[in-house]
Structure formats: C-alpha cells, structure tokens
Structure to design on (400 residues):
C-alpha cells in the first residue's frame, strides 16, 4: 500500500521556492539580494480595516460563523458584485472562503471527476495546474504569444475545447503577465464558449482593481449574460485591499456548484476566520478611494520597469494593463555566454545568472508555463526597482 496519495505525487512544490531558497543562501553570505518575486502589494492594510477587526475582537465576534460566511459579509459581496460588476447574486449563490486560492480548490474539488479536463491559458498562475491535479482532473493548456499580448485568441480557445473540458480558468488581469482582456476580447471568447454549453468558466478577478491608463475592467458574466449560469466569478480582498494575510476570498456563481462548495467547506475548514470576515466587510463596504491612489503608484512603477527592461540587451518587455507584474521575453539572450563561459540555454539559466551575477531574484518563466521569459513583481519601491533594473541591464550587458 502506498503511504502517500497518488494524486499528490505529481504535484510540485511551489517553483518559486528554489529561487527564494537560493536568494536566502546568498543573503546569509552577506550579499545584498533584491527580491522581485513578491506576489503581494507592499502597502499595508488600511487602518479603518484593521480597526474593524479590532472592534470585532472586542465585540466577541470570536466564535464559529456560518461555514460559508457571515450573512453580513455575503450581503457586502452581493452589493460589491452589483455595484462594480453589474452582477446579481442571491446569498445561496455566494461563498466566502479562506482566500482566493481556497475558492478555486473548493470549486475544482466540488466539480471534477477523474479525467475531466481544465483549460488553463499559458502563462498561468503557478497554482492552477497543481490544484487541478489535486482535484483529480487533467490540466490542458492554451498557448499565447507576445504578438497576441500574452492573451489567448478565440481560435486557440476553440481548438483546445474537447468533450471532456469541464472548466476554463480565465484570469484577467493576469498573474504572471499583467495582460488584461478588453470588453471586446472577452466578448470574442464568450462567442466561442456559447457554442460549447458543457464548458464552465472560473473567472479569477483577483487583480480587478489594479489596472492602468483608463483600462476598463469587465468580467465575463457581465459581458456575456447568456453565460451567467456557467460562470463562477471569484475575487478576494488580498490584492485590492492589501490583505494577503487575512485570507478572505469569495465567489458568486451557479447555486448547485456554490452549495456543493459550501458543503465541502463545512466538512473541511469550516468558516473563514470570523475576525478577518469583519475586516473584509469593512474593506468592501468602507471607503474605496485609496484603491485608485495605490493603482496610480503601481502604474508609475510599471512605466519605470517596462522602460528600463526594454533598454536591457536581449529583453523585450510588453506593457501590461494590470496587476503588478511584467513578463519580459528573454529570447534575445538565449544562446549567449556568461563571463564564465556558460551558455544561457533556458530561462532558469538566466534567472540563476541574474541571481549569482547581480543578486537579483526573479522567477523564471518555465514556472508559469511559457518560456523563455521571467516574471518581475514591481510591488516594491521605486528606489529598489530602479536599482534592480539597473542590475538587470548590467547582467544583460555582461552576456556575449
Ligand atoms: N489568483 C491569482 C491570479 C493570484 O495571483 C492569487 C495570489 O497570488 C490568487 C488567486 C490567490 O489569492 P489569495 O491570496 O486570496 O488566496
């Protein structure tokens, strides 16, 4: 008898850990390593949200809540979906979970049967394929190109759908590329999905509020109301409200799926932290103006990073419309030699060289399913980003 679960055997630990471990090793040797791997805003949770949590503790909101979330937070989520996305949900179509990640695994575990396929556009957020495997499904990938702005085309989506396709996981703005789909681009994908009524869509809207230059965020169920019964719209407070550690995510969608997710959650984690739920209630229903201010700060950093990376020899960096990542191509450095004579054959070679040569830690593209690229998170200060990009330019100039 196997000790370990067969499903878990093919699940990789987070690929970012190798770079983080190497960066920690170099720091311990006294090197001044700059980390560009952070998947979280560097801003703090706003004070009014923290105060709401403190008040919840003082009030004694320290007990179990309903397993799928407090009625008050569900009401705030329903109001948010209506206000910001024009979507109508009833309380039994809404669930509150322990972060956005928990929403996704709940949804997959609630719906996947062995052999069901889940379509994942590449480059993807690292956890999607592994979560599909944990749930017993088969990840299938849809490629994108620099020419298409690292977005999937309707043709590529059409070609990827099979009778076994259960879900498409759709993430805009994207981690890791920052690519964001316009209303027209979403409509064109929806036209394909309308022709395949067995395909459900998980719309991962985690970066909804981090968009730039007048980009208009829209979500699938809003753009294509005829798909409403097949879309799970998921979101959370982690990125928009700088609340990654509080662990609150939520979703609205088809009642049968959401009720099954609630059943699973009731038998596994029970409710998300009662105090975090009180904080998330304040986040969603309190003042919202700081969100746009923070997005402007991210935009300034994006412009700086894209400009400086495009000046580095061999790097081509698209200008993304959202999130706080860029995903430059390093096709122009593949085949070049380091001063020590080692040929850069892959994006892992490049990330390793960057770390060893210039003490900059960034995750290689293979971890996100599309090479040769690397991901830079610009959720850090302008001063640090300027220094990091200068070092990347020096690293590229050292290759011949
Ligand atoms: N979806 C995407 C695209 C993400 O980048 C992340 C976090 O990095 C999540 C979901 C999960 O968010 P949470 O921290 O709320 O679990």
């Amino acid at each position: 008898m196997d000790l370990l679960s067969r499903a878990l055997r093919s699940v990789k630990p987070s690929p970012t850990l190798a770079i983080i471990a190497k960066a920690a090793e170099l720091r311990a040797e006294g090197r001044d390593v700059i980390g560009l791997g952070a998947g979280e805003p560097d801003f703090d949770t706003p004070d009014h949200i923290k105060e709401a949590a403190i008040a919840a503790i003082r009030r004694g909101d320290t007990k179990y809540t309903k397993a799928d979330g407090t009625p008050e937070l569900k009401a705030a989520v329903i109001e948010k979906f209506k206000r910001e996305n024009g979507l109508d949900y009833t309380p039994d179509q809404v669930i509150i979970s322990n972060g956005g990640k928990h929403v996704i695994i709940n949804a997959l575990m609630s719906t996947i049967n062995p052999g069901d396929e889940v379509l994942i556009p590449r480059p993807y957020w690292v956890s999607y394929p592994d979560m599909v495997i944990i749930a017993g499904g088969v990840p299938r990938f849809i490629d994108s190109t620099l020419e298409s702005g690292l977005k999937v085309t309707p043709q590529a989506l059409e070609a990827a759908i099979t009778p076994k396709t259960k879900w498409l996981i759709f993430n805009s703005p994207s981690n890791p590329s920052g690519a964001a789909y316009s209303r027209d681009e979403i409509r064109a994908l929806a036209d394909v999905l309308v022709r395949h009524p067995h395909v459900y869509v998980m719309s991962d809207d985690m970066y909804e509020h981090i968009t730039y230059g007048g980009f208009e965020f829209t979500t699938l169920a809003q753009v294509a109301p005829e798909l409403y019964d097949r879309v799970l719209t998921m979101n959370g407070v982690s990125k928009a409200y700088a609340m990654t550690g509080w662990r609150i995510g939520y979703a609205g969608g088809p009642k049968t799926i959401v009720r099954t997710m609630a059943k699973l959650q009731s038998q596994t984690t029970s409710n998300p932290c009662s105090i975090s739920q009180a904080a998330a209630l304040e986040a969603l229903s309190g003042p919202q103006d700081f969100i746009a201010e923070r997005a402007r700060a991210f935009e300034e950093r994006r412009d700086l990073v894209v400009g400086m990376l495009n000046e580095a020899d061999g790097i081509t960096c698209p200008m993304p419309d959202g999130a706080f990542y860029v995903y430059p191509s390093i096709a122009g450095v593949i085949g070049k030699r380091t001063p020590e004579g080692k040929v850069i054959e892959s994006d892992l070679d490049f990330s390793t060289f960057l770390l060893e040569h210039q003490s900059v830690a960034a995750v290689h593209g293979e971890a996100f399913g599309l090479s040769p690229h690397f991901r830079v998170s610009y959720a850090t200060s302008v001063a640090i980003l300027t220094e990091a990009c200068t070092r990347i330019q020096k690293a590229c100039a050292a290759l011949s």
